[in-house]
Amino acid sequence: TAPAGAYRGPDVAAQRTAMERLAPLIGRWQGEAEVTRPHAMRVYQTERVERDLDGLLLHVRGTGHATAERAGAPVFQAAAVISFNERRGVYEVRSYTNEGHVTTADGEFLPDGSFRWSFVAGGPVRMRFTIAIEGDAWRESGEISYDSGTTWARTIDLALTRVP
Fold first, then answer.
1. Is 20 helix (H, G, I), strand (E, B) or coil?
2. How far apart are CA 25 and CA 56, in angstroms?
Protein backbone atom coordinates (compact mmCIF):
# COMPACT_ATOMS: atom_id res chain seq x y z
CA THR A 1 0.00 0.00 0.00
CA ALA A 2 1.08 3.57 -0.67
CA PRO A 3 1.89 5.87 2.24
CA ALA A 4 -0.75 8.43 3.24
CA GLY A 5 -0.71 11.44 0.94
CA ALA A 6 1.15 9.59 -1.83
CA TYR A 7 0.33 10.29 -5.43
CA ARG A 8 -2.49 8.20 -6.83
CA GLY A 9 -2.62 7.99 -10.61
CA PRO A 10 -5.72 8.37 -12.73
CA ASP A 11 -8.45 5.74 -12.60
CA VAL A 12 -8.34 4.78 -16.27
CA ALA A 13 -11.09 2.18 -15.86
CA ALA A 14 -13.46 4.80 -14.43
CA GLN A 15 -12.60 7.17 -17.27
CA ARG A 16 -13.30 4.54 -19.93
CA THR A 17 -16.56 3.54 -18.26
CA ALA A 18 -17.74 7.16 -18.20
CA MET A 19 -16.68 7.73 -21.82
CA GLU A 20 -18.66 4.68 -22.91
CA ARG A 21 -21.84 6.66 -22.12
CA LEU A 22 -20.89 8.94 -25.05
CA ALA A 23 -20.49 6.02 -27.50
CA PRO A 24 -23.81 6.80 -29.27
CA LEU A 25 -22.14 9.95 -30.66
CA ILE A 26 -19.46 7.98 -32.50
CA GLY A 27 -19.82 8.02 -36.26
CA ARG A 28 -20.50 10.39 -39.14
CA TRP A 29 -23.56 12.64 -39.11
CA GLN A 30 -25.17 15.07 -41.57
CA GLY A 31 -28.11 17.44 -41.44
CA GLU A 32 -29.08 21.05 -40.98
CA ALA A 33 -28.64 23.70 -38.35
CA GLU A 34 -30.91 26.68 -37.91
CA VAL A 35 -28.74 29.42 -36.46
CA THR A 36 -30.56 32.32 -34.80
CA ARG A 37 -27.66 34.27 -33.28
CA PRO A 38 -25.61 36.28 -34.04
CA HIS A 39 -27.69 36.35 -37.25
CA ALA A 40 -30.23 33.96 -38.74
CA MET A 41 -29.00 31.44 -41.29
CA ARG A 42 -29.32 27.81 -42.32
CA VAL A 43 -26.14 25.74 -42.22
CA TYR A 44 -25.68 22.30 -43.79
CA GLN A 45 -23.71 20.53 -41.10
CA THR A 46 -21.50 17.44 -40.99
CA GLU A 47 -20.15 16.04 -37.70
CA ARG A 48 -17.54 13.31 -37.34
CA VAL A 49 -16.94 11.74 -33.92
CA GLU A 50 -14.11 9.28 -33.28
CA ARG A 51 -12.57 7.53 -30.28
CA ASP A 52 -8.92 7.95 -29.38
CA LEU A 53 -6.51 6.60 -26.75
CA ASP A 54 -8.40 3.33 -26.40
CA GLY A 55 -11.65 5.10 -25.54
CA LEU A 56 -10.29 7.77 -23.17
CA LEU A 57 -11.05 10.59 -25.62
CA LEU A 58 -13.60 11.53 -28.22
CA HIS A 59 -12.62 13.80 -31.09
CA VAL A 60 -15.49 15.79 -32.59
CA ARG A 61 -15.09 17.64 -35.87
CA GLY A 62 -17.91 19.82 -37.24
CA THR A 63 -18.11 21.52 -40.62
CA GLY A 64 -20.96 23.67 -41.89
CA HIS A 65 -21.65 24.90 -45.41
CA ALA A 66 -24.04 27.48 -46.80
CA THR A 67 -25.38 25.08 -49.47
CA ALA A 68 -26.95 21.62 -49.30
CA GLU A 69 -24.29 20.41 -51.75
CA ARG A 70 -21.69 21.27 -49.09
CA ALA A 71 -19.56 22.90 -51.78
CA GLY A 72 -17.14 25.77 -51.46
CA ALA A 73 -15.52 27.09 -48.34
CA PRO A 74 -17.16 26.16 -45.03
CA VAL A 75 -19.04 28.87 -43.14
CA PHE A 76 -18.38 27.06 -39.87
CA GLN A 77 -15.65 24.76 -38.59
CA ALA A 78 -15.08 23.49 -35.08
CA ALA A 79 -13.22 20.73 -33.31
CA ALA A 80 -13.49 19.42 -29.78
CA VAL A 81 -11.89 16.86 -27.51
CA ILE A 82 -14.01 15.28 -24.80
CA SER A 83 -12.62 13.38 -21.81
CA PHE A 84 -13.79 12.42 -18.34
CA ASN A 85 -12.09 13.76 -15.22
CA GLU A 86 -12.90 11.12 -12.61
CA ARG A 87 -11.48 13.21 -9.78
CA ARG A 88 -13.86 16.08 -10.53
CA GLY A 89 -16.65 13.75 -11.66
CA VAL A 90 -17.28 15.75 -14.85
CA TYR A 91 -16.71 15.49 -18.56
CA GLU A 92 -14.29 18.09 -19.89
CA VAL A 93 -14.91 19.55 -23.34
CA ARG A 94 -12.17 21.56 -25.00
CA SER A 95 -13.49 23.18 -28.19
CA TYR A 96 -11.97 25.27 -30.96
CA THR A 97 -13.50 27.18 -33.89
CA ASN A 98 -12.03 28.46 -37.13
CA GLU A 99 -12.81 31.97 -35.83
CA GLY A 100 -10.23 31.51 -33.08
CA HIS A 101 -12.60 30.83 -30.18
CA VAL A 102 -11.27 28.34 -27.63
CA THR A 103 -13.33 27.16 -24.68
CA THR A 104 -13.02 24.71 -21.84
CA ALA A 105 -16.43 23.50 -20.73
CA ASP A 106 -17.85 21.06 -18.22
CA GLY A 107 -20.20 18.36 -19.47
CA GLU A 108 -22.79 16.26 -17.72
CA PHE A 109 -25.63 13.88 -18.43
CA LEU A 110 -29.06 15.29 -17.59
CA PRO A 111 -31.80 13.15 -15.99
CA ASP A 112 -33.46 12.65 -19.41
CA GLY A 113 -30.23 11.09 -20.77
CA SER A 114 -29.16 14.07 -22.88
CA PHE A 115 -25.62 15.42 -22.64
CA ARG A 116 -25.03 19.10 -21.86
CA TRP A 117 -21.78 21.02 -21.99
CA SER A 118 -21.65 24.58 -20.75
CA PHE A 119 -19.23 27.37 -19.99
CA VAL A 120 -18.88 30.98 -18.88
CA ALA A 121 -18.16 33.06 -21.98
CA GLY A 122 -17.18 36.10 -19.93
CA GLY A 123 -18.77 38.19 -17.18
CA PRO A 124 -22.44 37.24 -16.87
CA VAL A 125 -22.55 35.54 -20.30
CA ARG A 126 -23.09 31.77 -20.23
CA MET A 127 -23.45 29.31 -23.08
CA ARG A 128 -24.76 25.76 -23.12
CA PHE A 129 -25.30 23.06 -25.71
CA THR A 130 -27.58 20.07 -25.15
CA ILE A 131 -27.28 16.93 -27.29
CA ALA A 132 -29.88 14.16 -27.44
CA ILE A 133 -29.24 10.98 -29.44
CA GLU A 134 -32.18 8.74 -30.29
CA GLY A 135 -31.18 5.90 -32.58
CA ASP A 136 -29.71 7.49 -35.70
CA ALA A 137 -30.96 11.01 -34.88
CA TRP A 138 -28.80 13.70 -33.22
CA ARG A 139 -30.65 16.75 -31.94
CA GLU A 140 -28.72 19.63 -30.41
CA SER A 141 -29.73 23.02 -29.13
CA GLY A 142 -27.44 25.87 -28.24
CA GLU A 143 -28.44 28.65 -25.86
CA ILE A 144 -26.94 31.85 -24.49
CA SER A 145 -27.65 33.75 -21.29
CA TYR A 146 -26.62 37.34 -20.71
CA ASP A 147 -27.68 37.32 -17.03
CA SER A 148 -25.63 34.52 -15.42
CA GLY A 149 -28.11 31.82 -16.44
CA THR A 150 -31.37 33.35 -15.26
CA THR A 151 -32.85 33.53 -18.77
CA TRP A 152 -31.77 31.73 -21.95
CA ALA A 153 -32.13 32.48 -25.67
CA ARG A 154 -31.73 29.90 -28.43
CA THR A 155 -28.68 30.28 -30.69
CA ILE A 156 -28.87 27.10 -32.76
CA ASP A 157 -31.06 24.07 -33.47
CA LEU A 158 -29.23 21.18 -35.04
CA ALA A 159 -30.87 18.08 -36.56
CA LEU A 160 -28.52 15.39 -37.86
CA THR A 161 -28.84 11.82 -39.11
CA ARG A 162 -26.18 9.13 -38.92
CA VAL A 163 -24.66 8.38 -42.33
CA PRO A 164 -22.44 5.48 -43.45
1. helix
2. 14
CB burial string 111-121: b at 16+ within 10 A, e below: eeebbbbbbee
Residue 68 CB neighbours (<10 A)? 10
0.85 exceeded by pTM:
yes
Q: Is the pLDDT of residue 65 over 60?
A: yes
Strand partners for 43: 33
Instruction: Report how far residue 119's alpha carbon sits from residue 105's, in angstroms, rounded to the nearest whole number.
Output: 5
Whole-number average pLDDT of the chain: 93
First CA to last CA distance, the chain: 49
Q: In the chain, what percentage of residues exceed pLDDT 70?
A: 97
Contact between residue 160 and residue 48 where contact means Cβ atoms under 8 Å apart: no
Mean pLDDT calculated for residue range 134-151: 96
Q: Which of 55, 51, 50 is nearest to 14 (CA)?
A: 55
Q: How far apart are CA 29 and CA 124, in angstroms?
A: 33
